[in-house]
Design goal:
Oligomer: heterodimer
Shape of chain A: flat
Strand content of chain A: under 5%
Distance between the termini of chain A: 47 Å
Strand order of the largest sheet of chain A: 1-2
Largest sheet of chain B: 11 strands, mixed
Number of strands of chain B: 11
Order of helices and strands of chain B: HHEHEHEHEHEEHEHEHHHHEHHEEH
Largest sheet of chain A: 2 strands, antiparallel
Structural class of chain B: alpha/beta
Radius of gyration of chain B: 21 Å
Helix content of chain B: 25-40%
Strand order of the largest sheet of chain B: 1-3-2-4-6-5-10-11-9-7-8
Number of helices of chain A: 3
Helix content of chain A: 25-40%
Distance between the termini of chain B: 17 Å
Number of strands of chain A: 2
Shape of chain B: globular
Chain lengths: 97, 486
């Protein structure tokens, strides 16, 4: 398991839409490094023939009956938005005009 | 004896016999909040006015001779992960400050339908990420048994509130031990139900394949009553099972003669505090005296559980936390373009621990690392689950500690990894989807509570309750109250 550089931390955090300060980056790099070192103990195990577990109940293909249900009103859905307009969430423009 | 010291069934008897009213009970809880909250900080939001109003309605209904529902007039607190319609729900994070859910979680809906009275939303580690409540965006919560110590986490606020008699019943979420560990730190009974037993609809997600909601209370019976109310199939959560919910209370008081209890050797190794070891082993002896058969077992992949957990949980969390972007809910920090809005909002409003876990999860899921981390963890998760499946062929339940230590001092664990290790005895049951309960089993030399954990196979909560009930019947650790002064 490789050592974590500050560049990697900054890049991964940017991918997750976070923009940490310099001091934060170096702290996180150290902390991530020690956690990765700890979880590196999994490398000892040969699990090449072991299936993966992603859920434990064993149930699958659960469908809802298609019936008319109460849903949120538009104004309720928008109530917590920091900005809305004409019944829609408002965001900064993505495309240049 | 105060009303809030009583068990739910005794409170109901008191209501019916007019020994006290629901309004008196709710007022007593509120006055305990007013008395201790400044020092404990168990709440993020309170709802006293509606609680008093509801209490008066309950009293009116009782006067009219209406039947009492299962939790009629019982003051409850909900961890702030649990969405409550019209009542602020923050998940302990500043990124959800001011968020008022327009809908109820299934859990809060079922509690309201059963007559429970919500008196507030409790403090917690941000997005349930922590074992101490120190990672809350709303300040540290303190342990009523020792105000210099943590109440445990992440459901620390609910645990502290029940221990300080600010309510009768608390609810938390448990992704890796977040109900059981604070219960053990605060001398309470706390239940992590089997995965799929309780609906996660409206529960703010940490790790969707691990999260479960459960009760915390002063005794086993209150927990089994509460679980009966919230458990069961929910069409709004496809991961809930349709298996019927037994009347758990009917298993309390049953003999445990012949019940086979496994004691996993891997859970009694170095790193455990001696007093914890002694108390838990004595607890197991008490069960033996009641007729249980105790045998040593092995869960050979125990040493990998924490590693598996710290890959799967942050992977799921990093994905779940992507939705907090300042657009649909929560505060927004402006920027030049949309990207800056995301970056500025998330950077300013997430605390350290969510950032660390987003980092870890994004890293382990990223292309090139996925196979080495996430896929491998999912494979080892199979081995951990198999360990329990094999063990439960030989034994009915497993008994072990909840936490390697009693409540630690605020600020004591500075390094994230040392905090992660606090959950070492609880996380495996989340990975395997089985159920567990923490029951008070003694105190250390500083007077801090110790918890014993009883683990049962998935959807065998009744077996877990039966053993916990039998233990409680022959001990009185759970009756001890924290030494709170005005």
């Amino acid at each position: 398991m490789s050592k974590i550089t500050e560049e990697t931390v900054e890049k991964v955090l940017y991918l997750a839409r976070l923009k940490p300060k310099k001091a934060e980056i170096s702290r996180f790099a150290k902390q991530l490094g020690s956690v990765l070192e700890y979880i590196g103990n999994l490398a000892k195990l040969d699990v090449s023939k072991v299936p993966e577990t992603h859920q434990v109940t064993g149930i699958s293909d659960i469908f809802q009956t298609s019936v008319k249900q109460e849903t949120l009103l538009q104004e309720e859905a928008l109530k917590n938005a920091s900005e809305s307009e004409d019944g829609m969430f408002k965001v900064k423009s993505v495309l240049k005009s | 004896m105060n009303i809030s010291d009583l068990a739910i069934s005794d409170i109901h008897d008191g209501f019916i016999s007019k020994k006290f009213s629901c309004e008196e009970l709710v007022s007593e809880c509120i006055s305990n909040v007013n008395r201790y909250e400044k020092r404990i900080n168990a709440f993020i939001t309170t709802s006293f006015d509606t609680a008093i109003q509801s209490a008066r309605e309950v009293d009116n209904n009782i006067a009219k001779g209406c039947n009492l529902r299962r939790l009629e007039g019982i003051p409850v607190v909900l961890k702030d992960m649990i969405s409550t319609r019209g009542l602020q729900t923050t998940a302990g994070s500043r990124i959800l400050e001011g968020y008022i859910p327009p809908f109820d979680s299934t859990v809060s809906m079922r509690l309201k339908d059963a007559g429970a009275i919500i008196i507030g939303k409790t403090n917690q580690d941000e997005f349930a990420m922590g074992a101490s409540n120190e990672q809350s965006g709303y300040g540290v919560c303190r342990n009523p048994w020792d105000l210099d110590r943590v109440p445990g986490g992440s459901s620390g606020g609910s645990a502290a509130a029940v221990a300080a008699r600010m309510c009768v019943l608390g609810f938390g979420t448990d992704t890796g031990g977040s109900i059981r560990q604070p219960s053990s730190f605060c001398n309470l009974v706390g239940v992590k139900p089997s995965y799929g037993r309780v609906s996660r609809y409206g529960i703010i997600a940490l790790a969707s394949s691990l999260d479960q909601v459960g009760p915390l209370s002063k005794n086993v019976e209150d927990c089994s009553t509460a679980l009966k109310v919230i458990a069961g199939k929910d069409p709004l959560d496809a991961t809930t099972l349709s298996a019927g919910v037994p009347d758990y209370n009917s298993y309390l008081g049953e003999s445990i003669q012949g019940v086979k209890i496994g004691v996993p050797q891997e859970y009694f190794t170095e790193g455990m505090n001696d007093e914890v070891r002694k108390a838990v082993l004595e607890g197991i002896d008490s069960l033996k005296r009641e007729g249980a058969i105790v045998k040593g077992i092995s869960l050979p992949h125990t040493e990998y559980a924490l590693s598996v957990y710290y890959i799967i949980m942050p992977s799921e969390a990093s994905s779940n936390l992507a939705r907090y972007d300042g657009i649909r809910f929560g505060p927004r920090l402006e920027g030049k373009g949309l990207m800056d809005v995301y970056l500025n909002t998330r950077e300013a409003k997430f605390g350290d621990e969510p950032k660390r876990r987003i980092l870890l999860g994004t890293y382990t899921l990223s292309s090139g690392y996925y196979e080495a981390y996430y896929k491998k963890a999912a494979q080892v998760r199979t081995l951990i689950k198999n360990d329990f499946d094999d063990a439960f062929k030989e034994v009915d339940i497993i008994a072990c500690p909840v936490s390697p230590t009693t409540a630690f001092k605020i600020g004591e664990k500075q390094d994230p990894l040392s905090m992660y290790l606090a959950d070492i005895y609880t996380i495996a049951s989340n990975l395997a989807g089985i159920c567990g309960i923490s029951v008070p089993c003694g105190f250390d030399d500083k007077g801090l509570p110790i918890g014993m954990q009883i683990i049962a196979p998935a959807f065998k909560e009744e077996v877990m309750f039966k053993a916990a009930g039998a233990y409680q019947n022959v001990t009185d650790w759970h009756k001890k109250k924290p030494p709170l002064k005005e």
